[in-house]
Amino acid sequence: MAKPDISAKLRMNIASAVVRTHTAYRLRLLNVFMQAGLDITPDMYFILRYLWGEQDGTRQQELADKTGKDKASLTKLLDNLEKRNLVKRTADETDRRSKRVWLTSTGKKLKEKVYPLALSVVELAERGLTKNDLQQAQGVLETIYNNIKR
To answer: Which residues form a coiled coil (predicted)?
Structure first.
């Protein structure tokens, strides 16, 4: 019995499809934000989305954990969000070594513009798929994630 071609197996694995899909999703989000005149990147959106989701004032370390960002990347993202007056960081009252991240009023208002744009990308991505298709795909990806997570 012939051994499978290793390079073909690596090219055709699910990770390649996930990476391609992730890249396409991020590029589409960026394009939609730019066309709307918004000066945010997909990574900034993911940080803001977490804060908008009832997590305003979260600790910086928790934000890194929940968004899958390392400390250095998150710090740079937060610096850029602060420059745009979308978030502010304050010392944690119970642990001075820790910082909390808060939305500014400008950051809170941005949600009204960004959510419909992000939803349009989600709807585009899910076009032609049933609820069952999406649930199955999510289940498969969750299993793969759990198999390989740190």
So the answer is: none
Q: How far, in Å, CA of 122 to CA of 29, rounded?
A: 9
Residue 7 pLDDT greater than 80, yes or no: no
Residue 48: which of 102, 123, 117 has the closest Cα? 102
pTM confidence score:
0.84
CATH of the domain at 50: 1.10.10.10
Torsion of CA 99, 55, 141, 120, to 10 degrees: -120
Q: Look at residue 30 and tell me if it is in a domain.
A: yes
- The letter for the amino acid at 107 is G
Indicate whether 124 pLDDT > 70.
Answer: yes
Residue 27 lies in a domain: yes
